[in-house]
């Protein structure tokens, strides 16, 4: 499955999940007698639909593991709370106890009167014992997976990786990452296994909790988990929207030359679309495409191909930047002998001064 196919699947899946939980909520809110069998069927419907989502994640991780582990279809706010590509299984236990506590507060009078309640407030001693046993099992499993992940992360700096980083030419100056890919393959395979086991643990946790709870309790529990998930998702979307708005405000307050000098094409495009003048000059009368600035920048960062093109199309190799340095000074300061050779060949003055 491709990333685009998964994103389309997720959009449709989420809409269907909303409809299923809407029906579950309506059934739980019935003021008359609530039929346990009907609630059970609705909970199973939601559970089977969620299982479909988990299966698609497993399929996608074979194609793009990092996309799944990072939860890149989520907002950054949501993704920051992930544990190995999803929710931490013991969260399910905490939710059960939290629901029990909040419902006891609301139904205390009925409980004191001995009225039998089907809600999370009335978890039996046997149910609590089973939940406690599940919690102990989950802690051990989580610790094991977390330790394996920690070891894998440390192995990112093992001898094979260090040897690949010491290749000649070094990775920073080469597009050949074959040694790195070879070193990473077993680590990615291990990470894929860890994710698959974490996802399986999440699935088993849901299944076990639904087995422990009575139908109405399971309905209340599933609905609470869904509402918490949706709340985090919506909060993340709002935070992301604010961040994008702040970025646009920053663009509108920035001058076009500053954005051009940063080399951020996306922000520069947005700035031009918002109406900033591409010919705007600064206090020294320079535009975003000032030739002296471009030549000096190319010489300083070692973009020799760009430097050659500028010189080829007639840009004066002796033109200076703000502080009066010429491109040759910039190349010399950066130790870029190749750029210096290009400039001298194009007629740069080796005796030019960068100060008065």
TrEMBL record:
Q: Name one Pfam family in it.
A: Ank_2
The question of whether Nuclease is a record keyword is answered with: no
The answer on whether this UniProt entry bears the keyword Membrane reads no
Q: Where are the ANK repeats?
A: 323-355
GO MF terms listed in the record are: sequence-specific DNA binding
Check the record and name the SUPFAM superfamilies matching this protein.
Answer: Ankyrin repeat (SSF48403)
UniProt signal peptide? none
Protein's name according to its UniProt entry: DOG1 domain-containing protein
Which organism's genome codes for this protein? Ceratopteris richardii
């Amino acid at each position: 499955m491709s990333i685009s196919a998964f994103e389309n699947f997720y959009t449709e899946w989420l809409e269907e999940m909303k409809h299923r939980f809407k029906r579950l909520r309506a059934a739980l809110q019935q003021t008359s007698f609530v039929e346990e069998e009907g609630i059970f069927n609705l909970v199973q419907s939601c559970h089977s639909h969620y299982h479909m989502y988990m299966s698609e994640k497993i399929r996608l991780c074979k194609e793009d593991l990092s996309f799944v582990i990072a939860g890149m279809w989520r907002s950054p706010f949501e993704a920051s709370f992930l544990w190995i590509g999803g929710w931490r299984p013991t969260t399910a236990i905490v939710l059960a106890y939290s629901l029990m506590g909040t419902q006891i507060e609301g139904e205390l009078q009925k409980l004191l009167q001995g009225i039998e309640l089907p809600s999370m407030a009335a978890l039996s001693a046997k149910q609590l014992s089973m939940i406690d046993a599940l919690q102990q099992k989950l802690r051990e499993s989580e610790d094991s997976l977390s330790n394996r992940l920690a070891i894998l992360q440390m192995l990112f700096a093992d001898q094979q990786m260090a040897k690949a980083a010491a290749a000649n030419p070094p990775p920073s100056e080469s597009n050949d990452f074959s040694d790195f890919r070879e070193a990473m393959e077993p680590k990615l395979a291990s990470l894929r296994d860890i994710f698959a086991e974490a996802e399986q643990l999440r699935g088993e946790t849901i299944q076990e909790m639904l087995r422990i709870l009575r139908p109405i309790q399971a309905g209340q529990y599933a609905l609470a988990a869904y509402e918490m998930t949706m709340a985090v998702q919506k909060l993340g979307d709002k935070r992301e929207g604010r961040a994008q708005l702040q970025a646009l405000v920053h663009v509108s307050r920035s001058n076009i030359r500053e954005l051009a000098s940063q080399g951020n094409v996306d922000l520069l495009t947005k700035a031009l679309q918002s109406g900033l003048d591409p010919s705007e000059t600064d206090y020294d009368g320079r535009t975003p495409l000032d030739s002296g600035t471009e030549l000096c920048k190319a010489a300083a960062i070692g973009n020799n191909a760009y430097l050659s093109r500028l010189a080829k199309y007639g840009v004066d190799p002796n033109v200076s930047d703000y502080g009066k340095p010429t491109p040759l000074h910039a190349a010399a300061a950066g130790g870029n002998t190749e750029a210096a050779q290009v400039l001298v060949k194009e007629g740069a003055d080796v005796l030019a001064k960068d100060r008065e």
